[in-house]
Amino acid sequence: MTQSAREGIDITRILDAPRELVFEAWTTPEHFAAWYGGDAEVPLDRVSMDVRPGGAWSLVLVVPGTEMPFHGVYREVLAPERLVFTLKDATAPADIEGETVTVTFTDRGDKTTEMVFKQRGGNLTAEQYAAAEDGWEAFFDALVARLASL
């Protein structure tokens, strides 16, 4: 896929944590707020997660001088194997559903988990997808640190 034709993000990580714990890190406000945003602050009182198909989620990422709200709807919740949800930020047009994020968690034994992350939607430019991928990589570094602390 050429950079100009880019239409999404694909990231695979092997995590040193059991699948159930990784899933919990994605679906519990206290855990999610601790790693989503990487080094940015996500105040726990600004996180809402109704983790069920059709349930809404939202949070606010705070960096010095700026608040960045994100929100979406859970489309599929299959604990502890798979999450599918929509993702929008404040700059997304109101008439689009946003990006679709699919995360699958595969138990690899020895308390390790393969996490496969995909973001699709075609709502971003190639440059925006590249920047978003860098952001997710930083978030997942913070997820690794969070899992190590549990």
UniProtKB/TrEMBL annotation:
InterPro entries documented for this protein: ASHA1/2-like_C (IPR013538), START-like_dom_sf (IPR023393)
Domain Activator of Hsp90 ATPase homologue 1/2-like C-terminal: 16-147
Coiled coil: none
One Pfam family matching this protein: AHSA1
Family, similarity comment: Belongs to the AHA1 family.
UniProt-recorded name of the protein: SRPBCC domain-containing protein
Organism of this sequence: Streptomyces atratus
